[in-house]
Design goal:
Elements: H1 2-14, H2 17-20, H3 33-45, E1 47-50, E2 53-56, H4 64-75, H5 80-83, H6 94-102, H7 125-142, E3 151-155, H8 170-185, E4 191-195, H9 205-209, E5 213-216, H10 222-231, E6 250-255, E7 262-265, H11 280-286, H12 291-303
Parallel strand pairs: 3-4
Antiparallel strand pairs: 1-2, 5-6, 6-7
Helix pairs in contact: 3-4, 7-8
Length: 309
């Protein structure tokens, strides 16, 4: 109730009476989280009038742990991107502006947008990525059909946030359900997925089953190979025997994009990616650890922020 009331106050201050009539507690409307904590603390300490004088309120002492957990997240630097946003993120129009930038709206801007989640704590990565995808998908869903421009989510290291986990809690399952919904229904609204993973056995089967094309590089693990076999027609199952024998940069391409399954050789990128394999044999023999760099790395670890170049 407090969250809905705080969002209602935001709408009231912005004069958004049409939105006030239909919004829900899940509607993306900004509010001050510190105000929410203050209201919870009031409930946690509230005394009410009883037949014999003051007595403890309904929520007296029951919210202590919840408040402590929220305050812990508010003060944790790792979660600063969510709970310590810049002041401008509290503006009512900030969300629309960010969605427009990500979808390439305005001034003819197009191309690739890179969203780096590498510093997001692993325990909330599925939730954060799922919320991000749901937001853009919902914006696309509510756009007028004639105004929709197609876009694709490229999910690198997909096994980290699109996982098959038996012990996943309700929040993690809901986050995964967002990507599964996009995989099943996104084509109607111009939203598609490009799923990239070194461990296909750890990626949601629902998502993989909706893929129309496959670019498969070397796989030596039998579990991963068996997943690939189940995704392709039985007549092509023999192709998986080649997977452990592929050279670096070689791949099998099959699906709607090609007439016949094809073994291809990928060109090396002009700019080597930061994720490329290091030259261990050369670097072990020629490079020495830099003590000052190690000290700087430890300080970076402590403050959870990379130094500016």
């Amino acid at each position: 109730m407090h969250v809905r009331n705080l969002k209602d106050e935001t709408l009231k201050s912005q004069g958004k009476e049409d939105v006030r009539r239909t919004f829900t507690v899940d509607s993306p409307i900004p509010y001050d989280l510190n105000e929410l904590v203050s209201l919870l603390e009031t409930d946690n300490q509230e005394m009410v009038e009883g037949a014999r004088g003051q007595k403890q309120g309904e929520w007296y002492g029951r919210l202590t742990r919840l408040i402590a957990r929220i305050r812990g997240k508010l003060e944790d630097r790792r979660y600063g991107f969510m709970f310590q946003p810049p002041d401008r993120a509290q503006d009512y129009g900030w969300l629309a502006a960010q969605a427009g930038r990500l979808l390439g709206a305005g001034n003819g801007r197009k191309g690739i947008k890179i969203v780096d989640f590498s510093e997001v704590p692993s325990d909330i990565l599925p939730v954060v990525s799922g919320t991000f995808a749901r937001l853009l998908y919902d914006v696309q869903f509510w756009l007028r059909p004639e105004k929709r421009t197609p876009f694709c989510f490229v999910c690198d290291e997909a096994h980290l946030y699109l996982p098959v986990r038996e012990d996943a809690d309700a929040v993690e399952r809901q986050a995964l359900a967002t990507f599964e919904r996009i995989a099943k229904e996104g084509r109607k609204y111009g939203v598609s997925l490009l799923v990239v993973s070194q461990r296909p056995s750890d990626v949601s089967r629902t998502i993989l089953s909706q893929c129309n094309n496959f670019l498969i590089l070397r796989l030596t693990n039998e579990t991963d190979q068996s997943v690939v076999k189940k995704l392709i027609p039985d007549s092509m199952a023999g192709l998986t025997d080649l997977l452990p024998l592929l050279d670096t940069g070689e791949a099998l391409l099959l699906g709607d994009a090609v007439l016949l399954p094809t073994r291809i050789k990928l060109d090396k990128p002009t700019i080597r990616p930061a994720s490329g394999t290091r030259d261990f044999w050369r670097e072990w023999g020629t490079m020495q650890p830099d003590e000052n760099a190690i000290i700087e790395a430890v300080e970076t670890l402590r403050r959870q922020t990379r130094p500016e170049d």
